[in-house]
C-alpha cells in the first residue's frame, strides 16, 4: 500500500493545479483586480508604442496575452515583412493588434468588440497612430454588426478562453474579456467564422491551457470544424506555467 501513496499524492497535486489554472473564480478575481487597482494607468507602452487605456477596457499590461498574440501574428517588433490584405479582430480591446496590423501594412482593418468602451478605445488608438483611415472600430457581439462587410484575409480572436458555468451572469462588461459561460461565444465563433474568411484566408483563435482545450475540440467537432494548432508558447503566469495556442479553424471534411 505504501508504494502507491506517492502516486496518489502526485495525482491530487496535478488535479488541484489544473483546477486552479482553469478556475473561473480566479479569472474573475483577476478581472476585478485589473479594473480596480489604484495604479491602473491611462496609457501604457507595448511593442515600442504608447497606447491609450480607458476605464472598463482589458488592460494588456496586466496579462501576457496581447504580447503573445502580436508575436503569433508576426506583429511583434520588428515586423519582418509587410502584411497585406484585410484583418478582422474580434474582441479588440484597446486596439493594439488591429492598429499594429494597419501599421504593418493591412489596408482594411475592422476592430470589433462587445464593450462600447473598448470600441472607443480602439478608435482613439487608431487616431493616435494615424491609421484611422484604415481601422474602423465597431460595436459588435462577435460578427453581429458586420452585415455588409466583405470577407477578410485574416479573422483573429484572442478569446475569453476560461470556461465559466453556463448560468453565470456577468457583473461587469470587463468580465467578458476573461470568461465565457458555457462556451456559448466560442460555439458561435466556430459556427459563424467561415462566412467571414475570404478564399485562401485564415480564421485564427488565440486560446490557452487556462481554457478547456478538449471541451473546445468537442464543440468544434459538433460544429463541423477542424482545429489545427499552428503555434504554441508557454509562459509563467503567477504560480503556473500556461501554454498559449494559436489555433487555425477550418471546415472539417464531410464525413462519408
TrEMBL record:
GO terms for cellular component: eRF1 methyltransferase complex. Keywords: Methyltransferase, S-adenosyl-L-methionine, Transferase. SUPFAM superfamilies: S-adenosyl-L-methionine-dependent methyltransferases. The keyword S-adenosyl-L-methionine applies. CDD domains: AdoMet_MTases. GO terms for molecular function: protein methyltransferase activity; S-adenosylmethionine-dependent methyltransferase activity. Pfam families: PrmA. The keyword Methyltransferase applies. This is Methyltransferase.
Amino acid at each position: 500500500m505504501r508504494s502507491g501513496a506517492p502516486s496518489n499524492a502526485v495525482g491530487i497535486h496535478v488535479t488541484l493545479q489544473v483546477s486552479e489554472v482553469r478556475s473561473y473564480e480566479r479569472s474573475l478575481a483577476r478581472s476585478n483586480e485589473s479594473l480596480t487597482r489604484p495604479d491602473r494607468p491611462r496609457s501604457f507602452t507595448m511593442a515600442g508604442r504608447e497606447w491609450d487605456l480607458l476605464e472598463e477596457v482589458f488592460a494588456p499590461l496586466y496579462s501576457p496575452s496581447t504580447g503573445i498574440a502580436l508575436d503569433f501574428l508576426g506583429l511583434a517588433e520588428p515586423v519582418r515583412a509587410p502584411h497585406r490584405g484585410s484583418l478582422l479582430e474580434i474582441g479588440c480591446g484597446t486596439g493594439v493588434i488591429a492598429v499594429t496590423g494597419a501599421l504593418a501594412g493591412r489596408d482594411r482593418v475592422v476592430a470589433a468588440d462587445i464593450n462600447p468602451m473598448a470600441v472607443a478605445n480602439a478608435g482613439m488608438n487608431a487616431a493616435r497612430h494615424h491609421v484611422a483611415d484604415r481601422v474602423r472600430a465597431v460595436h459588435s457581439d462577435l460578427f453581429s454588426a458586420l452585415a455588409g462587410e466583405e470577407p477578410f484575409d485574416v479573422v483573429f480572436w484572442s478569446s475569453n478562453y476560461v470556461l465559466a458555468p453556463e448560468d453565470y451572469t456577468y457583473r461587469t462588461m470587463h468580465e467578458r474579456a476573461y470568461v465565457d459561460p458555457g462556451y456559448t461565444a466560442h460555439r458561435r465563433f466556430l459556427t459563424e467564422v467561415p462566412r467571414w474568411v475570404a478564399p485562401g484566408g485564415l480564421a485564427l483563435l488565440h486560446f490557452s491551457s487556462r481554457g478547456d482545450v478538449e471541451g473546445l475540440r468537442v464543440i468544434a467537432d459538433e460544429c463541423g470544424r477542424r482545429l489545427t494548432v499552428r503555434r504554441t508558447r508557454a509562459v509563467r503566469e503567477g504560480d503556473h506555467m500556461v501554454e498559449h495556442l494559436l489555433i487555425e479553424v477550418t471546415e472539417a471534411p464531410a464525413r462519408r
